[in-house]
Amino acid sequence: SKLTNLGHLEMTWRSRVHFHPLLVRILHKSRLRYYGKPEKKVDMPYQAYFEVADGSGMMSMVLWNSLCPKWYHSMKVGTVLLLAKYAIKSSYPFKTHPTPGDSQMKRFATIEISLNVRDPPTEISIIPEEMVKPEWGLPEVKYRFITRSELDGLPHNYSCDVIGLVTFVGRAERARKREHSEDFWLYRWAHAIDGTSDQPFILELFATSQPDVFERIHPMTYLVCTQMRVIQGFTENPSRTVYLTTSNESQIFITGWHKGQPYTKDAKVKNFIQWTKSQSEADQMKRTVIGGYYPFPRPPDSFVKY
Q1: pTM attached to this predicted model
Q2: Topology annotation, domain 6-136
Q3: How many other CB atoms are found less than 10 A from the CB of residue 290?
Q4: Predicted confidence (pLDDT) per residue in 238-266, tens digit
């Protein structure tokens, strides 16, 4: 059928009601958001954002309500979608934006694609990767992997991806979303090493919409975390307190989940795999720790310094 592209949509969306089908690749995926309130009668008050792209640029796509339980887990980073009967709306101004792996990619920020069960009922098709043709001009998923040796020199709030061998994972902890609120964030601390530094990555991992992965992070697993934010320490010795925290678009993968993921082609990921082959599993096992309370940033050694 006759296709359109994201650039053409941005120029013509105000003058039309019906749009030609779109062929796009998912580059980023947000966590699933529940927006239910007792006074609102919505059957399935869920919403998820994706950043999708074609040859003309990148745009946000929003999956609404009962389409979320049906499609959210099938729509992975790298998945190619054929969309028909979708709606176009002005962008929501307060949403978070992931940092694209390709800094040259054009971003269409004024509008977003809206996928609904009705008004109009969206038709979604997933195109298997082996059927994707090069002439469609769909961009590849690009990453911003860093090594541990590069981390200390990065600015606060820098967005990056990391891979490492888990040496410590703490127990799941809870923090209130707001003071006096009944809602909590669930998170856990982890350490991962990649052989480029004596120091590990210190990772603050909030539960994303991947409970099966979040609960199975164990020492000696290969951990990939995407769209992490650098938090530079606020003490006199900043190199001791730099850590990484998850963002709204972070994805977490552990051993058993890596097969077929787009990052497996990345050069830094391949270098890490080569390094792990040179390591003795027994030696690394001796250094691993699981569970317990992990105070971070750590308090000073003495009350005088405190």
Answers
A1: 0.90
A2: OB fold (Dihydrolipoamide Acetyltransferase, E2P) (2.40.50)
A3: 13
A4: 446 799 999 999 999 999 999 999 999 99
